[in-house]
Amino acid sequence: MGILARLFRGVINEVADDALRTMARDQYIENIFEMVPAAKKVNPIYLAEIMMRAKQGIPVPRPLGSHIRFSPWEKLLFNPVHLFRFPTPETVGINTSVRIGPKANKPLSLSIPVMFAGMSFGGALSKSAKIALARAATMAGTATNTGEAGLLEEEREAAQLLIGQYNRGGWLNTPEKYKRLDAIEIQLGQGAQGSSNQRTAAKNIGEDYREVFELTGGQDAVIHSRLEGVNTKEDFINLVRELKKEAGVPVGLKIAATHYLEKEMEIALEAECDFITVDGAEGGTHGGAPTLEDDVGLPTMFAVNRAAQFLVKKGANRDVSLIATGGLVTPGYMLKAMALGADAVYIGTAAIMAMLSDQSTKALPFEPPTDLVVYTGKRTGLLDIDQAVQNVFYFLNACVHEMEMVAVTTGKVSLTDIDRNDLVALDPFLAKALNIGLGYVSPENQEMFFNGLEHMDIVRTEQAPVVTH
Amino acid sequence: MVNPPNLAETLATFHSDLNRIQTVAGTLSQIERQHYTDLTRYEDEKLSSIAVAEQSSARQLGEVKQICIAMAQKIDEIQHSMGKK
Fold first, then answer.
1. Is A237 exposed, middle or buried (0-12, 13-18, 19+ CB in 10 A)?
2. Does some domain include residue A124?
3. Is the pLDDT of residue A188 over 60?
4. A63–B contact, CB cutoff 8 A
5. Residue A26 is part of which domain span?
6. Is residue A299 part of a domain?
7. What is residue A29's predicted lDDT score, i.e. its pLDDT?
8. Is the Cβ–Cβ distance between A257 and A297 less than 8 Å?
9. Cβ(A254)–Cβ(A303) under 8 Å?
10. Among all residues of chain A, which has the CA nearest to that of B59?
11. Is the same domain home to A378 and A247?
């Protein structure tokens, strides 16, 4: 051990001893340790946000969405097979492709069922980050999404498949722009912020941002709570029909998941949307008010289940694609969302984390790694785009490979063949709500188990319809 | 003067070609998968990166196969409706 290291250890030892003695001696009220129970009572995140609100006087824009894990994905497991049904031979390739909007004139065909969620250039990500996502998506045979932005030429060029958000800022809502897209997603809300309005101050808008959004100098970028021209159900129906006719590509609706989900979907079906995207309460964002992130919406798991059941009930599950998003950070979560009825999933936070991966060292330990990829970051120039592309592409590849492994062990030849019958629940309420077998008891004893609970007036035995792809 | 192509014959040709493309895509996809397995046997970073690209290519060829199947089905439907007329 070197002299410096020994000296450092000696200093640390003295400081730690002194701190421990002080902590043991001082009254609680004048003891620094008071911070520990205080932070535990209030929660360290909430404590920091109380301080930020007190200092800034405005809602604090928290990046990446809610920290609360609303959807209990870990309470669902896939069922491996051995003899009852045989696993898929490893020589058989698992079909991972999926079609979004199968009834559209030009359906969106993907090699894998994982896409990149709407993370806008400027409002959220830097140009480099958007280009990296577009290139990685192209390599993997999937689509990326513009987010609520204008049409970024570099993104369009790099993305073989680009989904564009017809947005509440109006920046992509002209025919010369939306006719260049491979699918149009009418964005009326997002999991992290509901349908609330948002504003990016002019001081945070650079020249390239202004150009893409067609803003004048000093003009803020404003996302309204309503889409311009859509104030009635009929307005929305007319808009969908017009876009379908003009663009010919799949036209869908994206909403923040809500307890009014079925009522919203009813209108989307009436408008003949080709796909519906439900963004659960766990959805990410570049920065949203903590109250919108933590206290508004519906968890992804329940949203995707209800949306899938509703499509089955309406006989629309084969014609209208369902895309799930919000907090799907592992391949297991993604595949479980698909087993519950989603045709494909969007990922946001996980893709950003994957992109950063070992490049995080360029920002740590003094700045958060996201400083390399967010538009307002000070280190966006340090992002190695080629490395970012490879990281994200590898991440997608690994995720889909893990999904294929689940297909093998469940005896399926296609990811879309995996359904809720391949799942078991570790919670009686989830089992009932999702219409999945309960792992506590054998299949033949399920009824007896739940009847027992019914006698205790805990659950009702009414069955939900079964969803199959 | 060039005669307009016979629609029924054209559809039959497309159907046959699609079946051929589907078979080729399926075969290539299988070969790419085998390449992935072979290349990952060596603990070499460069070969591993090629293996990952092969695996992704296998999936994309799988997608081509599925597209061909869907198109061939569509042609079947058209031929069927033409036959009814």
1. middle
2. yes
3. yes
4. no
5. 3-42
6. yes
7. 87
8. yes
9. no
10. A111
11. yes
Indicate if A9 and A134 belong to the same structural domain: no
Domain boundaries, chain B: 21-84
Give the pLDDT confidence score for residue B6 in this predicted structure: 87
Count up the domains in chain A and report the number: 2
Task: State residue A67's pLDDT score.
Answer: 95
Q: Which chain B residues are within 8 Å of A394, Cβ to Cβ?
A: 52
Q: Does A387 touch chain B (CB under 8 A)?
A: no
* Domain assignment present for A460: no
Please list the alpha-helical segments (H only) found in A357-445: 385-409, 428-434
Whether residues A101 and A247 fall in one domain: yes
C-beta contacts of B12-15 below 8 A and 24+ residues apart: B12/B79, B14/B71, B14/B75, B15/B72, B15/B75, B15/B76, B15/B79
pLDDT band at A81; cut points 50, 70, 90: very high
Average pLDDT over all residues of chain A: 94
Amino acid making up residue A390: Q
Rounded to the nearest angstrom, the minimum Cα separation between A241 and chain B is: 24
A99–B62 CB contact, under 8 Å: no
Does residue A287 share a domain with residue A154?
yes
Range A141-160 average pLDDT:
97
Which residues does chain A have within 8 Å of residue B60's beta carbon, measured at their own beta carbons?
111, 141
pLDDT (tens digit per residue) in A302-332: 999 999 999 999 999 999 999 999 999 999 9
Q: How confident is the model at residue A94 (pLDDT cuts 50, 70, 90)?
A: very high
Residues of chain B with C-beta less than 8 angstroms from the C-beta of A96: 59, 62-63
| Position A129 in a domain | yes
Identify residues of B whose CB sits under 8 angstroms from chain A CBs.
29-30, 33, 49, 52-53, 55-56, 58-60, 62-63, 66-67, 70
Q: Is the pLDDT of residue A454 over 70?
A: no
Residue in the block written with tokens 């999404």 = A145
**Other CB atoms within 10 Å distance of the CB of residue A126:** 23
Distance from CA of B1 to the nearest CA of A (A): 33
Is residue A355 within 8 A of residue A135, CB to CB? The reply is no
The predicted model gives A441-465 an average pLDDT of 72
